[in-house]
């Protein structure tokens, strides 16, 4: 089943994708390095399936954003996984600015090797340029604002004057494009679509909240039962089904309507809001492939 069968209204129409791709391709011509922004809780599901093809061999660094909400042990494994594939990766938290210095350092190094190559081929030395790419809601604007700090270029917004591209200086020889590249999310994969919905990457109005809360709770029963017990003060074993669990959570949180019936919609909203705001603790829903293999090769190195 494809994601759009579960999430019918979130489809990017082919025309949207073509337009997004065209804008990115134009901007890519201006940059030497790409920062691919992923959600650290779902690095697989928040990746655009065509990114490699679109950036066509341009050096890239992966930034695992919202790492404050992700399981640190799993984020570490993702960083190791990317590195094992020869891709630099760093965990960041764009709202607090964690990891951003390291991100700039890695980007600068990647850019330097690119510009040095150009100079050795006879080009004039110039600052390297970088842009941020990612699906909606992954934190692109937050990261740009964080990186910009006091360096944010003031735009002279004069009517009738074509606005030049705005660049933010990140280091002596590194500039960041002020406009991020917006990529479409994975639609061909239902599991990825569901995880995007859990995290709020897809607008709640567009999804079946009952369905996604059910699948989310099933996942939590399997992966993080203790977090659920702790948050909702459940001392007994968790019920086996998400339906029973939701009812129990509703009761615990006093979501009752007349006659002691649980207001399930309210309980669904509570569960999703708790997850998205980190009240269920740090949770990761995608794990990297071949973790053992990656770990073994890391140990050998
Ligand atoms: P964009 O659509 O990719 O530009 O995403 P935004 O920068 O608008 O961020 C989307 C939401 O995620 C906002 O509510 C941000 O406050 C939040 N956000 C962004 N980065 C982080 C982060 O590192 N940690 C947390 N907890 N929230 C973040």
TrEMBL record:
Q: Give the record's GO CC terms.
A: cytoplasm
Alphabetical list of InterPro entries matching this protein: G_CP_dom, GTP-bd, GTP-bd_ortho_bundle_sf, GTP-bd_ribosome_bgen, GTPase_MTG1, P-loop_NTPase
Has the keyword Phosphoprotein been applied to this entry?
A: no
Residues the entry annotates as binding GTP:
65-68, 137-142, 181
Tell me which UniProt keywords the record has, alphabetically. Answer: Cytoplasm, GTP-binding, Nucleotide-binding
An example Gene Ontology molecular-function term: GTPase activity
GO annotation terms (biological process)? translation
Q: Where is the CP-type G domain?
A: 17-185
Q: Where in the cell is it found?
A: Cytoplasm
UniProt-listed PROSITE patterns: G_CP (PS51721)
Name the domain of life this protein comes from. Bacteria
Q: Which PANTHER family does the entry link to?
A: MITOCHONDRIAL RIBOSOME-ASSOCIATED GTPASE 1
Any idea what job this protein has? Required for a late step of 50S ribosomal subunit assembly. Has GTPase activity.
Q: Which family does it belong to?
A: Belongs to the TRAFAC class YlqF/YawG GTPase family. MTG1 subfamily.
Name-wise, this protein is Ribosome biogenesis GTPase A
């Amino acid at each position: 089943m494809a994601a759009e069968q579960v999430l019918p209204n979130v489809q990017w129409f082919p025309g949207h994708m073509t337009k997004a791709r065209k804008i990115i391709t134009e901007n890519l011509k201006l940059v030497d390095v790409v920062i691919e922004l992923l959600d650290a809780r779902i690095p697989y599901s928040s990746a655009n399936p065509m990114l490699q093809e679109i950036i066509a061999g341009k050096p890239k660094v992966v930034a695992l954003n919202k790492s404050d909400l992700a399981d640190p042990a799993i984020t570490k494994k993702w960083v190791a996984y990317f590195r094992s594939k020869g891709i630099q990766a760093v965990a960041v938290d764009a709202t607090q600015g964690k990891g951003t210095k390291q991100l700039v350092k890695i980007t600068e190094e990647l850019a330097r090797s690119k510009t040095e190559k150009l100079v050795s081929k006879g080009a004039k030395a110039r600052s390297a340029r970088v842009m941020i790419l990612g699906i909606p809601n992954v934190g692109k604007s937050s990261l740009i604002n964080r990186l910009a700090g006091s360096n944010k270029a003031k735009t002279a917004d004069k009517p009738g004057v074509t606005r030049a591209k705005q660049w933010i200086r990140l280091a002596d020889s590194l500039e960041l494009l002020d406009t991020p590249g917006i990529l479409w999310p994975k639609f061909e994969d239902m599991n990825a679509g569901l995880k995007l919905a859990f995290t709020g990457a897809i607008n709640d109005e567009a999804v079946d909240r009952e369905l996604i809360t059910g699948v989310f709770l099933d996942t939590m029963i399997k992966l993080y039962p203790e977090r659920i017990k702790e948050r909702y003060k459940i001392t007994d074993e968790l019920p086996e089904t998400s339906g029973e669990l939701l009812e129990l959570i509703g009761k615990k949180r006093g979501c009752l309507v007349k006659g002691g019936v649980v207001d399930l919609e309210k309980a669904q909203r509570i569960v999703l809001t708790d997850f998205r705001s980190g009240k269920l603790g740090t949770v990761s829903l995608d794990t990297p492939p071949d973790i053992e293999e990656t770990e073994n090769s890391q140990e050998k190195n």
